[in-house]
Design a protein that fits this description.
A hairpin with a 4-residue loop joins β1 and β2. The protein contains 3 helices and 3 strands. The protein has about 110 residues and is an alpha+beta fold. A 3-stranded antiparallel β-sheet has the order 2-1-3, with helices on one face. The protein has 2 domains: about 30 residues; about 60 residues, no CATH class.
Length: about 110
């Protein structure tokens, strides 16, 4: 296995949890042959609150959210707050529906 290493890249993160999330994202992206512990087909969901006159709440998969974050840097629409990642999509949608009955918001 060692003779198959092409390069090693080192990244520093702010915390251990952000390092674990980053590791999971990279494993899902590159799907390394030997690192099978964190390899799964789960797709984590993020919740974003869009900064507009009437703020909107949106949900999207983490990969889409990462692309959207890059796109927002050059556009007028900005996500003010990101929440997540969440693993249980169904539970998250139920929670948002419950919160919407108490605190009406745009979708």
């Amino acid at each position: 296995m060692i003779d198959q290493i092409a390069r090693i890249r080192w990244e520093e993160t702010d915390s251990e949890i952000s390092a674990l999330i980053r590791e999971s994202v990279l494993i899902k992206k590159y799907r390394p042959r030997f690192n099978v512990l964190l390899k799964d087909d789960k797709s984590y969901v993020m919740v974003g609150i869009i900064k507009e006159e009437f703020p909107r709440v949106v949900t999207m998969h983490q990969i889409q959210a990462d692309a959207y974050k890059k796109e927002c840097n050059s556009s007028r629409v900005q996500i003010k707050i990101w929440l997540g990642p969440y693993t249980g999509v169904y539970a998250l949608k139920e929670t948002l529906a419950f919160l919407r009955r108490i605190f009406p918001y745009c979708t």
